[in-house]
Amino acid sequence: MAKHKLKQFAELNTFSNVYHHVQTQYHVPDFKLKGQWGKKHFKNENPIVLELGCGKGEYTTAMAQAFPNKNFIGVDLKGNRLWTGAKKALEQSLSNVAFLRTRIENITTAFAPHEIDEIWITFPDPQPEEKRAKKRLTEISFLNRYREIIKPSGILHLKTDSQPLYTFTLDVIQQYGHCLLLSTPNLYQEPNCFLGEHHELLVNIKTHYEKKFSAMGFNITYIRFQLK
């Protein structure tokens, strides 16, 4: 297993659609593509969509296939996970896909103000222990980071099997006056018309973790919102 991961990491470094921005020191410098993802990587001015904590990139690659006129960037720290999505994107010649290996905490060093049009958070670690609440990707400190990089009208999506994270996120949205657009505690019981233009992405794309937890009987929850 260790040799397999080492091989993946070595191969990951050769992929043209993968970037590394992993820093360990206190000060994290701006990434070389900050503010220039469209111009220098994608070479177009199409909207840019992030998937945070993208894992194996199931949503990133599927969205790229569904929307060829948008650019997609999957962000995750685990290189062995990124390898799967990055390799698939290259094999399928998806030129509107890139992956960034970094901590979500450093997201404002990788993207310029208002550079991002939309953010997806799909099945993140719910950090169930209260002492780790600040690690949740919808905690206010993370939302403040996202607000720096997303356009004022940009939409955020949370899809999770965790009822506590779903409730926590709704509470944060209400507490800080953000704009709740849509929420459901059981995604697959809702009619497609309720989900609007995103319904195909929401019901047809299933990550590894979604399939796993759905099979265990967990409801899949969904929240769509904007930051004030």
Written overview of the protein:
Helices cover 37% and strands 21% of the residues. It is α/β, with parallel strands linked by helices and 228 residues long. The longest helix has 13 residues, at 79-91. The mean pLDDT is 92. Strand 2, helix 3 (58-66) and strand 3 (71-76) form a beta-alpha-beta unit. The protein has one domain (2-22, 29-226): Vaccinia Virus protein VP39 (Rossmann fold), CATH 3.40.50.150. The chain is globular and about 40 Å long. The protein is built from ten helices and eight strands. It has helices spanning 2-12, 37-42, 58-66, 79-91, 107-110, 140-149, 163-175, 192-195, 199-204, 208-215; strands at residues 18-20, 48-52, 71-76, 97-101, 116-122, 150-160, 179-184, 221-226. Helix 1 packs across helix 4. An eight-stranded mixed beta sheet has the order 1-4-3-2-5-6-8-7, sandwiched between helices.
Mean pLDDT: 92
Poorly predicted parts: none
Q: What is the highest CATH level, the class? A: Alpha Beta
In DSSP terms (H or I, runs of 4 or more residues), the helix count works out at 10
